[in-house]
Amino acid sequence: MTTILVTGGTGTLGRLVAERLRADGHEVRVLSRHAQPYAVDLREGGPALDTAVAGVDTVVHCASTQTGGDEKAAGHLIAAARRAGVGHLVYISIVGVDRVPFGYYQAKLAVERQIEASGLGWTVLRTTQFHDLLVRIFQGLAKPPVMLLPAGVSDQPIEVAEVAGRLAGLALGAPAGRVDDMGGPEVRTLDSLARAWLDATGRRRGVANVPLFGRAYRAFREGGHLTPERAVGKGTFDEYLAARLDGGAGRRA
Question: Within a domain: residue 66?
């Protein structure tokens, strides 16, 4: 039996990774800011982090935030893993972090580089965005009467449970470095995805595609965050919506 620490283990992805590993009979420690007994803010580190990592064979690093601090958090985690003699650090990253000059992507790339230089055995998996993230974005954009979308941008959403299964498998294997990217089954325009979500939820909104400016927008428009050659995911966005909305539950104008 392997002892595995999952950071961000109460989040969208980390929770499923922890569940999968436990179902396979492994001892799993869940680390997050509020999860006892391993309640740790990785941005602060400290003795509680050393306690969480002590005796761990593998760390699956799912914790992340778009408000800043990922690099500092990774530094604390790597230092604690070194002290504890952890054999394998698995990190979840995003397709295109080396091609899209977007702040959050640049932080994820910096963490990749920290891990590569850590001296630990490591594995990095990059995936496209989860279905759940698109829904959260659309919920925010649908607050006004007209949804404003960045013109010319597509996405390749993937089912988070499939990513969790892949991460769990990687955690149980030997360090593999940068593994093949994992993309969703379809590349679709944001316009198409937004209209599918509006139809599924019964919301009545206009949709307008608005040209934006800047290097990050240009990189998204050019598909720097996509991996059509690695469209290995199975669950489509429409299937995700049908399963989550249960034939109309949750619909509102």
Answer: yes
